[in-house]
Amino acid sequence: MAQRLWEGSRDRPRPRALDTLGYELLAVDVEAGTAEAAFTVGEEFGNTVGNVQGGFLAAMLDATLGTAIVCTLEPGEIAPTVELKISYLRPARIGRIVGRGRIIKRGSRVAFLTGELYDAEERVLATASGTFLLTPAPDDRAPDDRAPDDSALDD
User: Residue 47 contacts by C-beta under 8 Å, 6 or more apart in sequence?
Assistant: First the structure.
């Protein structure tokens, strides 16, 4: 399912950071603007007391919210995160963590999302609210392959 989301219906490649996080797409609902993903968390994600380090949880929440907005984008459009607020509610243990994200409001240029991470017992580990900028993707062609800039001729 994740392969289809990133490669089948979108024109941008799947972020490699998702592999680092042990990301698995579980469900997506384009009309509702929701996504659910699982993360396989190994001991390399642990802090000094054996819990998942908070920065990894933030990345998981960003990936979850990002999936919810990416599934609604048009070809040639991207949605970088411009703000992400995390609340850590309980320690996250090594193992499987599930993220659920949803669009709260989507305008023409900005989208607001919220989401949570859950442990195997369905306890909320952390919550997030995020703001995403809806913008055209940058031109990835090499400078020599781009059309000439005629704006200098407008003087």
Answer: 53, 54
CATH superfamily entry for domain 2-6+15-138 = Hotdog Thioesterase (3.10.129.10)
pLDDT at 8 over 80: no
**Amino acid, single-letter form, for residue 56:** F
Task: Identify the pLDDT of residue 7.
Answer: 43
Contact (Cβ atoms closer than 8 angstroms) between residue 117 and residue 60? yes
Q: Is the pLDDT confidence value at 67 over 90?
A: yes
Q: What's the predicted TM-score (pTM) here?
A: 0.84
Distance from C-alpha of 26 to C-alpha of 98, rounded to nearest angstrom: 9
